[in-house]
Amino acid sequence: MGGCLSILPWGQAVDISCNCLLGDGNYIHMMKDNLEALEGAIQELQRKRDDLLRNVSIEEDKGLERLAQVEGWLSSVESLDSQVSILLEHKPIEINRLCLFGYFSENCISSYEYDKEVSKKLEEVTKLISKGDFKDVAGKRPLPKVEKKKRIQTTVGLDSMVGKAWDSIMKTERRTLGIYGMGGVGKTTLLATIKNKFKDEFDVVIWVVVSKDLQYKGIQDQILRRLRVDKEWENQTEEEKAFSIDDILGRKKFVLRLDDLWSEVDLDKIGVPHPTQENESKIVFTTRSKEVFRYMRADDELKMDCLSTSESW
After folding, report:
1. Radius of gyration of the chain (CA)
2. Residue 256 pLDDT > 80, yes or no?
3. Rounded to whole angstroms, how far apart are CA atoms 131 and 93?
4. Do 40 and 181 belong to one domain?
5. By three-state DSSP, how is residue 151 classified?
6. Cα angle, residue 42 at apex, residues 38 and 46 outer, rounded to 5°
7. Residue 151: band (very low, low, confident or very high) from pLDDT cuts 50, 70, 90
8. Which residues pair with 180 in a beta bridge?
9. Are residues 74 and 6 part of one domain?
10. Are 201 and 170 contacting, i.e. CB atoms less than 8 angstroms apart?
11. Has residue 150 been placed in a domain?
12. How far apart are CA 97 and CA 170, in angstroms?
């Protein structure tokens, strides 16, 4: 406490102390309380932001676009959160400057300006919290990453193939894997085996069974059933469905599994974004035809030969 007054000659210390006590000088005495209030308020703002982001994500999974006012509020939170974080970094220094039970400071001007800024940010945070309630953001459960687990046959003898397929899929430079071989060799079983490996690596996993006479509409419907909880898409045209699919998957790291391709599939026509190293998405397809494999321009191929009856479906 003596150190506070010994920094300056007694007369000068008295003059500065008087100035700090007059008018807005009360900032210094309130510094600790204001800092505590600011820390609590910014934590509340962060929680409100996180809750809103979760709800926005749910709405976007339904193909909706976030409102401009929501985006503006989130941007304001990000900016203010950064400013408060920088301000709080100086807290230990400013607290250590306080003396005489917090009524004075070893650097009165610095402490005055600091707590004035703390009070200002506290007011801004409080105001932003009050503006963070948006009734249009619904509260539904997020999209599950993997479809409901199905019972699959034991894949004895496929271990090495599973390892090769997984290694290929997870290589950064490879975006598309083609698995080909005659019917009954275990291609579908292989896909089913590695399905649950995807859940920790991708936002959403989609399995589409492509029959010989299946049209693009059927492929789109399977994808949209996986992505949407409402039925709005059922009456859409193929072009509208393609737009909806592209809009949702364009914001996700996804893996699309096309099982049993009989001919080339135009991803653009379906609405599936092309996998790139930037979006980190993947496409895995199975086919009985080497020609289809070439048409699909896979980055890697996995040929499956005949297995014994006990090793395949």
Report:
1. 31
2. yes
3. 33
4. no
5. coil
6. 175
7. very low
8. 287, 303
9. yes
10. yes
11. no
12. 55
Question: Cα–Cα distances in Å, from 11 out to 6, 105, 172?
Answer: 11, 15, 71
140 within domain boundaries: no
60, two tokens: 């976007």
299 within 8 A of 175, measured Cβ to Cβ: yes
Specify whether 184 is located in the same domain as 110.
no
Q: Is the pLDDT of residue 304 over 50?
A: yes
The gap from C-alpha 78 to its chain's centroid, in whole angstroms, comes to 15
Let me know if residue 274 belongs to a domain: yes
For the chain, give percent helix, strand, coil, nearest 5.
55, 10, 35
Calpha distance 107→94 (Å, rounded): 9
In a shared domain, residues 163 and 303: yes
The backbone torsions φ and ψ at residue 30, rounded to the nearest 5 degrees and listed phi first, read -90, 5
Among 124, 116, 114, 106, which residue's Cα sits nearest to residue 88? Answer: 114
Specify the 3-state DSSP secondary structure of 75: helix
> What domain count does the chain have?
2
- What pTM, to 2 d.p., does this model score? 0.50
Question: Does a structural domain hold residue 136?
Answer: no
Residues 126 and 10 in one domain: yes
Q: Label each residue of 34-54 as H, E or C.
A: HHHHHHHHHHHHHHHHHHHHH
DSSP state of 134: -
The token pair at 110 is 């610095």
